[in-house]
Amino acid sequence: MSHKMTTVQLFNEIKRAGGCSNPIRLNGEFLNSVTGEVNERALLVACKDRRSVVCPSCSYLYKADAWIVVSTGLIGGKGVPASVSTHPRLFVTLTAPSFGAVHARKTDGSCRVRSQPRCRHGRMMTCSRRHVDTDPVIGTPLCVDCFDYPGAILWNAQSSRLWNRTFEHVRRRLAVTQNFASEEFDHHARLRYLKVAEFQRRGLVHFHVIVRCDGPGEPFSPPPVFLTTPLLATVISSVVSDFSLTTAHSAVAWGRQFRISDASVLDRDDLRIAAYLAKYATKTTDGSLDFARRFHARSEILNLDVTPHLRKLALTTWDLALEPEHATMNLRVHAHAFGFQGQLITKSRHYSTRFQDLRDARAAYMASPSSDDPVTGTFTYDGRGYDDPRATYVAEFLHRLAVEARSANSATNKVIEVNP
Ligand SMILES: [Zn+2]
Ligand SMILES: [Zn+2]
Ligand SMILES: [Zn+2]
Fold this sequence. Notes:
By secondary structure, the chain is of the alpha+beta class. Helix content is about 35%, strand content about 15%. It is built from ten helices and eleven strands. The strands form three sheets. It has a five-stranded antiparallel β-sheet, sandwiched between helices. Strands 1, 2, 10 and 11 form a four-stranded antiparallel β-sheet that branches. Strands 6-7 form a two-stranded antiparallel ribbon. The protein is globular. Bound molecules: zinc ion (3 copies). One zinc ion (ZN) binds near residues 49 and 57.
C-alpha cells in the first residue's frame, strides 16, 4: 500500500519513526484516550540498525550510544563514578595470524618485498607498487591458491571463543602471580572489559579491547594494590603470545602482531579511544551493503559485485557449513561476516552503562504525550518502510542536515574524531 502524503503528513511520519530511513511497520489497535475509540492503524518503529550503510540516522544514534558506553567506562558518567578514571586500564589490539600474503600499504607506502620472489604456483610474491589507501587490491592475496581460505574462516568463527578463553587465562595467571587459587580471583579483584571487533581488509577480524581493573566489592570499586598496569600488561602479553584454543581439528591462536598500551595515564586520549571504537561499531563486514545481510542462497554470493577475494571468503564460509565436522558452527548464517559470529561490541558486566538503559532513557524522553495510546498485545509485523517512498529520502536528507548543523555548532568545541 503506497500513497502520496502531504508534506506535513510526511514530516510527521518521519518524526514518529524517530527519523529512521527504513522503519519497521507494525499493525495494531490504538485506543484514543480522549474519545475512547479503538482504531486500527500502522505503527512505525525505528529499525535501530547500527550499520550506517543500512540506516544513517539509526546508526548515528547507535554510534552516540556506543560512545557513551565506551567512554563512561573510562571516565565515568551515566551512573558510573568518575573514580574509574584512576583505575589501571589497558588498551589492547589483538590480530589474527597470517593466512597468506596479501597486498598492503605499510606506513612508508610500500607493499611487499620478499626474498622468495615466486610461490609454488609460480606467482609473484613481491609487489613493488605503492597502493593508494582506497585501492581495492589492498587486503587481497598475492596468490589465491596460497591463501588459506578455510583457515581464515575457521579463525573468524572461533575468534570470540578465543578471546573468552584468553581472558579466563589472564585471570588465572594473575592469580598465580599472587599465590592464590585461580577460582578465587574474583574474591580479590575484578577485570572489566569492552571489546570491539573490526574487520581488516583481508577479511579477518581483529579486536580492540579496553581492560580495566576493579575491586572485588561493589561495582566500580577501586582495585587491590597488587593489580597494577605493568603487571596486567605483562600477563596479557604472555597469554596472548602463547595461548591457543585447541579444537578437534585445529589450534586457534592470535597473530604475532598485537599492541598493548597504557590507557590509565591518558586523559583526552581516552576519549579518542572511545570515538575510535564507537566508529567501528557502525561498520559492516566490508563497509558496503553487499555484506550487510545474511545470504539465503549460494547464488546470491556468486552474483555479488565485489572483489574475487571477498566473494571467495563468503563462498568458503557457505561451503564449509556443508562439512559434517563444522555442522555445529552455524557457519552458513554468518557467511556475510566471513564466519565471524557474535556482536561487534561486547563487554563484561559492570564495564559501564548498558545500551538498553540508554535506549530506554531516550524512549522515555522522546515519548511525547499523545491521545493515541497503543493497545498492547495486538501488533503484527507488516513489512518495512514508509507508505510514501519519498519519506526515505526525506529522512536521510533531514539526518544529513542535523549532522551538518551539529558539526557546525561544535566546530569551536572541537569534535573528537579519530582516523585510524
Ligand atoms: Zn533506522
Ligand atoms: Zn601490492
Ligand atoms: Zn601460490
